[in-house]
Batch of 2 targets.
Target 1
Amino acid sequence: MEKFIVRRRKDSDHMKVEISIDPTYKEPKVIILTDKMTDDIEHLMQIITTSAESTLLAFSHKGVELIDSKEIVRIYTEQKKVCVQSIHGVYTVRLRLYELEEKLNPQMFLRISNAEIVNRYMIKHMDISRTGTIGVELKNGTKTYASRRYVSKIKKQLGI
């Protein structure tokens, strides 16, 4: 089990944040231990509940990071790892692609192959050839392709 502890000093108040990585947990669980309900705790609860669906817990060389889903360019598999490419860099996650597809907003993310999901708002250009393949160029310059198997689903989701 990996453990990360962050301490924040705000005036005279201390807040300790502890993250434990435990492979037996399949869903994240947040527990707040406090002696009384405060405005800070209520604010924290509001942030957690509203941002849980719009953020993704990912790992980088710096440790654990929260990535806003709006900043995700694409999610793909590489060498048996699931990678998240954001506007800030590439991270790994411990979820499978199908789990991410279920978790992420379907209005924002588009599955283009067995190995890749893209943020539809990060698509710069799509080249639909006569043979039925779709070339996808993303705003960060990445070029990828949709598999034939997903072409009809992509066209339906995009209204093409």
Target 2
Amino acid sequence: MKQVASAREFNVSIQSSNLVVAVFTASWCGDCKFIDPFMPEVEEKYADRLTLIEVDVDKVGEVSQEQNILGIPSFVAYADGRELVRFVNKLRKSREEIEDFLNKALDVYHTLHDTPERKE
């Protein structure tokens, strides 16, 4: 997962016309460490459909404040610079819940991007 090192890099990443999911984490977060072992497999499973980026809330705090991230790990899906859907709460997240969210994000993305008026 690509780590975002600055607010500028975050803003450039979410401008993509493809689906980008930001994973907000921190090195001290126990629930973030819980998802670490299976996230590479999840990322590989979805690699052809979306891009996952990691945002450390301690290193890029202004981004988490702007995005109103109150609990971590949190997942927020973007396309064309706008938020599509988010999975944000203070609870530990299971692999199934994360994959359910990614599927939901893909559904929202395709609903918005596969409409006739979007053809360019």
